[in-house]
Amino acid sequence: MKEQLEKIYTEAAADIEKAGTVKDLEDIKFKYLGRKGELNEIKKGLKDLSDNDKKVVGSLANEITQKLESTISEKFQNFYMQELNKKLEGEKIDVTLPGQYVPHGHVHPLTSTTNEIVSIFQSLGFSVAPNECSPEVETEYFNFDMLNVPKDHPARDVQDTFFTNLAPNVVLRSQTSGAQIHVMENQKPPIRIIAPGRVYRNENINARKNNFFHQIEGLYVDKDITFGDLKGVLNEFIRIYFGASRPTRFRNSFFPFTEPSAEVDVQCIMCEGKGCRTCSGTGWLEILGAGMVDPNVLKGVGIDPDVYSGFAFGMGVERLAMLKYAIDDIRLFFNDDVRFLEQFKG
Ligand code: DAH
User: Fold this and answer.
1) Of ligand 1's atoms, which has the minimum distance to the CA of residue 258?
2) Ligand 1 neighbour 217 (Cβ under 6 A)
3) CATH fold group of domain 109-344
4) Ligand 1 neighbourhood includes 314 CB (under 6 angstroms)
5) Model's pTM, two decimal places?
6) pLDDT digit string, tens, across residues 150-200
């Protein structure tokens, strides 16, 4: 039986040596080490041997079993690693290859400027008026009448304002100021809102003018609001938007819906106040209109001007973006030229 065992071992070892695949190894394992395998057959015959032979043959059988098991499993491991490496090799990714450029969109500079201005006023306690308070198609009532604009004011002329054929008094709004009326008709003081949106004017288009553009309207109505509050809020806005070192100036002006009225200038960003083409030699750039809400306007919406006062302001988004980024042609905002727009990526 000893010789038989040694023969089995030599044969099995040779088979293992020849095995080329995992499948071969499984077959060999089955043939020699399986329940009905050759080694087990011998182990079954042990019971007929003398005690001494049983010991010798038994331990040899065990030794051979262990040896075969360990060579098979060693080879199995090798095959497994080889196959795994082959698979990984096939799936290899060359991370040094250049990536594929995927062009992606980004926010338009007018949108980002609007967002920036809105968030500054939000940080000062203003909230954005509901959309229904700020329609682009408006009646003369909101766009002019309630804002104290006289019937014969030139702004009402078709030369300046787009009238629609929807009804005689329906216009494309020429200013966001009408939002003030919508808000005050719907809300009692304290009121502290801003209303961003598009406005339309019957202009000849050139580098400085387009027949539509964007404004941000502001309104603050409460008890004891003074011109000092107006200056405080607008100076703070300018300080955040243009930077702390930029001087401002409030100039006397006129708007039908405010009294007194002011126009606010910042020192020219091109020449730092020395005087250049951009500021027409004045050293100053006008950035917004403002004033104390005219008592007539408050009365019109049923707010008692003896109890309440307020200030309002309006600014052009294009103008503020042009001044901050030194853009010299308003049409660039509307031409969809990616060479311009891409300069405002994230
Ligand atoms: N609506 C004015 C315009 O389009 C701007 C403006 C001026 C708005 C003074 C205001 C204001 O609220 O108080 O030119």
Assistant:
1) 13
2) yes
3) BirA Bifunctional Protein; domain 2 (3.30.930)
4) yes
5) 0.73
6) 999 988 888 899 999 999 999 999 999 999 999 999 999 999 999 999 999
